[in-house]
Amino acid sequence: MNGLLLAAIAAITYGSRLAAMAILPRPTGRLEQVLARVTPAIFASIATLSLITEQPALVEGPILLAALGALIAAPRRSFALCLVAGVLGYFAGEAIASAMR
Amino acid sequence: MAAEPSVSVARTVAMVAPAAVAIAVFGVLYGAAARPLIGPELTILSSMIVFSGATQFTVIGLLAAGAAAPAVLATAAILNVRHLMMGAVLRSSLGPSRLKRALLAWFLLDESFGFTMLAAERVPQGAERIEVAERTLLVTGLCCYAAWLLGTGLGILGAGLPGLEGVAAAVFPVLFIALAALTARTRSVTVRTVAAAAITAVVCVVLPDWRALAPVVAGLAVALPNDPGPAEAS
């Protein structure tokens, strides 16, 4: 990779951020309504992406259990509780994995 | 009233801290992986001017596989399409200053977007929401940027993080599950959220080469249908 290619990658990345936030017109009407509903869907989609590898296959057991812990805590709608449950799930998964070795 | 912003900044930093630590860990991994391929100078420069883990890891992977520049640029463009949607969603919570939005755009990441939307949706629309959203995007973005640069630098210097990679990888699904749970406030939105996760899983399995577009596809697919019931809380 040379500096020119790196600069082009940087321009594409910042350009995509800049376009929607400062160049394109603010969404209105039907589009604004749709975008108002899209936020949690994007979060769920990114969470799912982080659980499936590019092969595709599921990620390792401890990470799956971390996600399961967060999912179990999710109905309480507490950010801290989700994080704690996720950490507990992860270490439970690690303990199970090491016991099975 | 004067103390409120500083309290909010402290709370925001505390909230973003786990994500920032995870980002730093991935920065170490990136620095260690990129250095032999592109050298220490371009490695740290890439983190300084690209500031996108997904893009940078993918570029390194493509370069290691011998990909040509057009393929690298096309892939970078596809990976960044979701910025368009996240930026459009954020836009209604930001102020009228184009210059300020252009500067804040630098900090648009999955993580900063999540924390910003969460903070913005907790206050009513108007000047207060704009202030909260802009401050949250700036603070979370700065924390993530500092963590990414620190991690990359440590990776270039040869730092090793045995055992931490798994914990860091677990932070991201947990973080985004928590953000989804907090922002899905109605039954209808919750159903759409679960559907988005299912669509993403299908895209990952059936069209793995297009997985980078899954958040855009899934987000629009579940958000487009109108809700026949009472107005949703947003």
Task: Summarize the structure in words.
The complex is a heterodimer of chains A (101) and B (234). In chain A, 76% of the residues lie in helices and 0% in strands. Chain A has helices at 3-23, 29-49, 61-73, 79-100. At the A-B interface, helix 1, helix 2, helix 3 and helix 4 of A face helix 1, helix 2, helix 3, helix 4 and helix 5 of B.
Oligomeric state of the chains in view: heterodimer
Structural class label of chain B: mainly alpha
| Sheet of most strands of chain B | none
Structural class of chain A: mainly alpha
Features:
heterodimer, A: 101 residues, mainly alpha, 4 helices, 76% helix, flat, B: 234 residues, 10 helices, disordered C terminus
Briefly say what this structure is.
The complex is a heterodimer of chains A (101) and B (234). With 101 residues, chain A is mainly α. Chain A contains 4 helices and no strands.
Question: How does the SSE layout of this entry go?
Answer:
The complex is a heterodimer of chains A (101) and B (234).
Chain A: H1 3-23, H2 29-49, H3 61-73, H4 79-100
Helix pairs in contact in A: 3-4
Chain B: H1 4-49, H2 53-64, H3 69-79, H4 81-91, H5 98-105, H6 110-120, H7 127-156, H8 164-183, H9 187-206, H10 214-223
Helix pairs in contact in B: 1-2, 1-7, 1-8, 2-3, 4-6, 6-7, 6-8, 9-10
